[in-house]
Amino acid sequence: MEHYFTNNHNLRSEIRCIDYENKGIVFTFFSDLGVFSKDKIDYGSRLLVETLLRQNETFKTILDVGCGYGFLGIVLGKFFSSQVEFIDVNKRAVHLCEKNIEKNKIQGKCYVSDGYENVNGTFDLIVTNPPVRAGKEVVLKILRGAHEHLTKTGELWFVMRKDQGVKSILKAIEDLYINEVIEKDKGFYIIRSKSVDK
Known about the structure:
By secondary structure, the protein is α/β, with parallel strands linked by helices. Helices cover about 25% and strands about 35% of the residues. It has a single domain (about 45-195), classed as Vaccinia Virus protein VP39 (Rossmann fold), CATH 3.40.50. The chain is built from 5 helices and 9 strands; from the N terminus they run ββαβαβαββαβαββ.
């Protein structure tokens, strides 16, 4: 089985479109084989976006880590009128995300990055639905690495299922962040993390 966090240059292409509506705005996303949640918007990602949009906050700059075809950053960028950067290790995902940024008319750029290796600067919001199937080490690299790229008042938001070990993950990052469970639904936890030392 092909994983969405790898690159397979021989994988065929079957482009499809996914629509998502929020507050009367319809978003259209191009998707394809070899990317995460290729046929529908993942429930955890939707819950993360919709929980964030209920907060009385604004974010001028957003980084979408492991962006896939760009759902999180595109919807949040539209509603917050933010400047968004998108990163993924999967080149096909990056290509789709670039098309979706243009299609949905937001201010953003997408590029290939393994973790934060190609990321410069800091962000008011870092958002991720981390690739749990890639293993705990990869998930922790994403969550812990965010610390270096948050502004002084910046926030890391992520989604994870209870049965994917969210409690042990929270324990493993408590030296860096004050973590708060903002929402729980259908086994998904939405977490807001603020840096301890900023």
